[in-house]
Amino acid sequence: MTSRGFRFLTLALALTGLPLTAVLVGCKEQPAARNTGETKTAAMQPISELAIALDALRDLNAPNSQEAGTRSVFYLNQWISRQDIDKNWAPDPMLKTLASALQPAVEMAALERLSFSESDVAYLQQCQWLGDIAERTRREPTPEPLQSWLKELGKSTSPQQAEQLAAAERLFDWTIRNVQLDELPPPPKAPTASVGGDPAANSPPLRGEVGPGYGRVPWQTLLYGHGDKLERSRIFLLLARQVGVEGAILAIADPQSAGSSNPWCCALLIGDELYLFDAELGLPIPGADRQGIATLQQVIENPELLRQLDVPDGPKYKIEAADLKRIVALIDAEPLALSHRMQVLQAGVPKSRHIVVNVVPSTLQSRLRKHGQIGQVSLWRIPFEAALYQIGMQQRLSQDPAAYRDWYREHGMLAGQHPLLRARDLHFQGKFTDEGARSLYLEVRQPSEKEIDLLGTSSRMRERIGLNTSLPEDPAQRSEMLENIIGVARRGKQNATYWLGLTFYEQGNYPVAKDWLLNRTLSVKPKSPWTVGARYNLARTHEKLGEFDEARKLYEADDSPQRHGNLLRARWLAERENANESATKPESADAKPTKDENGDVKPAEEENSSKEEDSKASDSPSDPKS
């Protein structure tokens, strides 16, 4: 094993000294931009300044790119200083209805400020990642069973709407395959009321207490590759926004608690309809006869459509007909997306850049209110709670060494200049080969499990890679740091292995994807933290290869938070297999024989050889019959 193979281990060691803000917020420590005052050069045109700023975002995770964020902020400020600014701008009126406990998130975003700062960089990179994923994923071919349904839909609506829905289905599918579903955390305890106390300061997110949907901001959900059903829903809604399709979370109002609601599913607003996608099931809600994707209006008019999502002798779908009378819509709007500077930036970004950084929730509210089935439309509290939780979590980790150690072992390899961070960046861009994501994933995988273990027991191994001189002299500190490094190395290798399998799936190399997911992720020890995602993606790979029995068995054996949806996929696969067998079955033996003109029995003819058996596995749950 060469020292290059352990390069990421020494980087992991260096990360232990990073300030917690740099690790959590995602911005590298960088020198402040030089203040150039109001100097304006004729050689630098506004569009080129903006281009330089956006190009610098591409370099954030490149080797030796410590000043990329500073460079991006500098040129963004140069660019925005030359723009004609609307002096009558005001924050979106929907913010007036936001709970007081969430107002600190708005204040931190400094909505009216017309200059960019280092704190904006992680959000801008998040938008760039979402744009990269959306632009390449929307161009993937639509699954065949869905094509015929979309073609008919395009006749009754418009080809553009059918195209938007096709793109949405592809983005939903990418989300389900790439964001492993975690259990939804229980709601934290409500803050203790106190006379004259500040409700915001005592809120669970600011106390660093995790709750449903806000444990990660979207860039973390993308980067780490897992999230609960609400975090997963956010990724889908934000991906759709990148292709010009807005949507909202539909929730069921709680009749026992005014203002409270229980999130149900994602609804995308295409034309005049709201199309339904359930991120917990991992399935769009099917229409009549399980064809296509249902709309909210169709489900309200015929609640029995939801009973298609009941599993016989298994789980029943959570929504009943009575619930459909209490639907509210929740708009995902991150604090920074509501700022004046992001609105100005959005107006200046060329369409060729494929990046959306701004949202106007009041405009979306007006469109949603046209749907008589929706009672109330409001801002979703989750994006604001997620912003507050970043601050609360930072404070808690700084005070709790054990919590920080656990957090670091899981996420430390995705900070600073670690190769995995650059690999994820390239992965989102779809750059897998030619010094792309795979070469970096493979680098992180180089040390064997035995070599990783030797880091803790062999001084010679540590000396060989130059690690001994970096360790503290104190035995307890030395042991703890070695344990951290070993944990990061092992977790990094597990991550790289699983994500390699996903790259091969995305490129359509299903036999190789199968090998990485089965033999190198699910079948190895110690057990991978990606068992749930690998099992699901392996089943999808079996479907692609026409190995339906293997896929069905994996779905049926699932015990993850997505079990309900996977049981439905297994059931629908079995129905398709039975339908295919019936279509190719010879004529029954007790059928009446056909006689010729002489009264002799004619031999039974074989099935028409031109009738093809559909051996292709559908990639879309939108047509469960497929």
User: Given the structure, what is the number of helices?
Assistant: 24
Helix content: 40-55%
| Major β-sheet profile | 6 strands, mixed
> Could you tell me the mean pLDDT?
85
> For the CA atoms, what is the radius of gyration?
27 Å
| Sequence stretches where pLDDT stays below 50 over 5 or more residues | 11-44, 588-626
Distance between the termini: 48 Å
Strand arrangement in the largest pleated sheet: 6-5-4-3-7-8
Give the beta-strand count. 8
Derived structural class: mainly alpha
Looking at the structure, what is the overall shape?
Answer: globular
In percent terms, what proportion of residues is strand?
5-15%
Structure overview:
Helix 15 (about 400-410) runs parallel beside helix 20 (about 475-505). The chain has a domain at about 45-190 and about 200-385. It is globular and about 70 Å long. Strand 4 and strand 5 form a beta hairpin. About 45% of the residues lie in helices and about 5% in strands. It has helices at about 5-15, 20-25, 45-60, 70-80, 105-110, 120-135, 145-155, 160-180, 220-225, 230-240, 295-300, 340-350, 360-370, 380-400, 400-410, 420-430, 435-445, 450-455, 460-465, 475-505, 510-520, 530-545, 550-555, 565-585, and strands at about 180, 225, 245-255, 260-270, 275-280, 285, 325-330, 375-380. The strands form 2 sheets. The protein has a 6-stranded mixed β-sheet with strand order 6-5-4-3-7-8, with helices on both faces. A two-stranded parallel sheet has the order 1-2. It is built from 24 helices and 8 strands.
